[in-house]
Specification:
With 288 residues, the protein is mostly helical. 66% of the residues lie in helices and 0% in strands. The chain has 18 helices and no strands. The longest helix has 21 residues. It starts with a helix and ends in a 5-residue tail after the last helix.
Amino acid sequence: MQPEDLIKGSIRLISLPEIFIKINEMVEDPATSAADVGNYICQDPALTARLLKIANSPLYGFPSRIDTISRAITIIGLRGIRDLVLASSTVEVFSRLSSDFIDMHKYWQHSLYCAVYSRTLAAKCNALHVEPFFIAGLLHDIGQLIILHKLPEMARETHFRAKDSGTALSRIEQEVIGFDHIQVGVELLRFWRLPSVILDAVGFHQDPGQAEEVSLGAAIVHIADCFASYSYPLIPHERGKAAIEDEVALHPAALEITGLSIEIDEEIREEVSVQFSAMQSVLLTQAA
């Protein structure tokens, strides 16, 4: 069994809503205008409302209110809107899953924290487009949900063994299944035809030094994952007292690639908290 076998056998679960597929096609078509995309999105009132909430959230911090999708597209851009539709669609698709040993709400909280951290760190690194980093952060552990769906008993065993032993989940998965959730996640994103910058960011986020081509995304998601896991727990008031250096096993290559220092967490933590709270009220209501 290979990671792609889980994807091929999960078509009902992993098929994104038609509206995202159509929007993605429109964005990639040079003949499509922003007005065309806006008109298509407006056919889905629920999605329109979510996108306008995101556009007016602290994630973007625009001084004046954005009341129309066309205005949102003008400011955020077609690809930015496409990526936000992907984020909303992914949560919608996978929110149907449940588990008695994985807290799905905490799973999505962590994923969203990682997404917001990734986007914020990308901006600090002067990335031209920051939305792909948000998507990579949100989806960095999405393979866990595929394994949960297709191999529930193995998923249970690997999670409990990882928890009991303190060993990384991916390492236990390699021992038990023969591959890990990161490989499965990459196969899912490849099936969705997402760009290589997102695939590499997800595929190498635990070891960014191994990324051969697009290493910045992997390094950013790695740092974001560490900060989301340790430096900024799921419930803000439960932040640990120990220094970050004692809590987070940051890969040295990640800081070298990004040019960031570990003190960046102190600098952006409040900003990330505000953005997370706003995005949680928009995106995670679908996964409640």
